[in-house]
What we know:
Strand content: under 5%
Keywords: GTPase activation, Lipoprotein, Membrane, Palmitate, Phosphoprotein, Signal, Signal transduction inhibitor
Domain RGS: 73-189
CATH superfamily of the domain at 59-193: Regulator of G-protein Signalling 4, domain 2
Region (Disordered): 183-203
Main location: membrane
CATH architecture of the domain at 59-193: Orthogonal Bundle
Number of strands: 0
Radius of gyration: 33 Å
GO cellular component, one term: membrane
CATH topology of the domain at 59-193: Regulator of G-protein Signalling 4, domain 2
Amino acid sequence: MSCWMPGCPALNMCRGLAALPITCLERAKDLKTRLGILLHKPELGHKTGSSSKLQLGSRRRDSSREVLEWRESFDQLLKSKSGVNAFHTFLKTEFSEENLDFWLACEDFKKTRSKTKLASKANRIFEEFVQSEAPREVNIDHETREITRKNLSGATSACFNEAQAKTRTLMEKDSYPRFLKSASYQDMSRQAASRGTSKRSHT
Length: 203
């Protein structure tokens, strides 16, 4: 910055710097350089970086083991939050995600303690998934549908048990085997297996 006006702060600062001994200016430059090197030194963040890498590696190993466990049984898949998400994504490609959504709604319904909420939730689930021509009607037989309808008159946490069981069996026997054979799951399991192999080779 330059200034020709008398009393200009920039001009006064420049004059002040010029009046300093050369050694002071060199020391200041040297100090600035050293600070810059220290701030960019990788060693300073080494411990933090290592621990975060270890945590990330541990999470990857856990998720890899989980992915491979999904093929052991349908129960293992349903126990895993990421497994349920992956299965839901697959069901969307087959336009049958309402089966899993109904099953999840029933699981949530069973946790309801308030009798008032139990009745209102039961009606909402029935209207959305169970009744004939419901917006997201699940594939259950007429007899099960009527049993569930009668259960609504005195709604308890068990009123959807039969319909939920039928839907679960349908998914286990029909959609689940196709999910395991799908390109998306095959890709996930290959990656999980390769991470597991890589881990063993490093130990």
